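Sequence, structure tokens reproduced for reference:
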Amino acid sequence: MNNRIISINNEKLDSFPVIEDYASLRELSLNGNRISAIPHSIGSAAELKKFSVFDNQIAEIVPEIWSLTQLEDLNVSKNQLEAVSSEIGNLTKLKIIDIAHNRLSEMPGSIAHCGDVEFLYASNNKVAALPGSLKQLDKLLYLNLSDNPLTALPDDFSFESLVEFRLYNSGLVALPDSFFLSRTLKEVYLQNNRLTELPKTIGRSTKLRKLFLEGNQITALPDEIGGCASLEELDLRNNPIEQLPDSIGELKQLRLLDLRKNRLETLPESILSLENLCKLDLRWSERLQEPEWLDELRARGCLVYC
């Protein structure tokens, strides 16, 4: 049988099933079981395109996996892996790599050789530093590095095609200037880190639509934020922000502005220029004196919470 698919999910399997004919296998899905080891015979599945063993008890990836050069989708998330071999770079046809929810302490630099990768999930590990070569993934659309002890990113950290970036709950102290030079960025999630400021290059992110910065240590925004012409949602809650730049009024597409739990005393009147603003949340900003012009926003149908 050609183009064979085997899917045995959530069946409480204690061991890898016996597979008679690896040669015809194209997809193998064994998610949500109790499998602790992958057999060396997996190397016979030379035409395998998808291999998914999400949510098992696997502690090691056998080297034969790295010879499956037709693989496009590799999911080994939610296991007990402590390392991924540098030989992952052999899998040059991979489009999806999911290594999240393991015990990985590093990401191999050779992953940059997987030049077709579009989605890379690596959250909930123990990765403390990233290889500089990661930026070579020119087709990467989505990158999730959340819940890792990452306090810094490589100095040169811009991507050719990246659309969505997630790095929350990670202790990140600063963003490199290069980050917002990824001109395709549309969504950035950086909640619950230790950021104190944003690089001025943020003004180059003309396609950015969502920017979530809840729970950082940001005290002010750069004037250049006004260059984010496509920004629709800006979440700044729970930061020690003391003032906003007048340039915030240049965010003509902004629909949501969340300023809860900040240290603002005043608001720039330029906020009135935000014609598409649907929701302005100012709750628990105890120092803020409510300006009279907020009534004008309310009259336009904007929900204002104080």
Notes: The mean pLDDT is 97. The two ends are 65 Å apart (CA to CA).
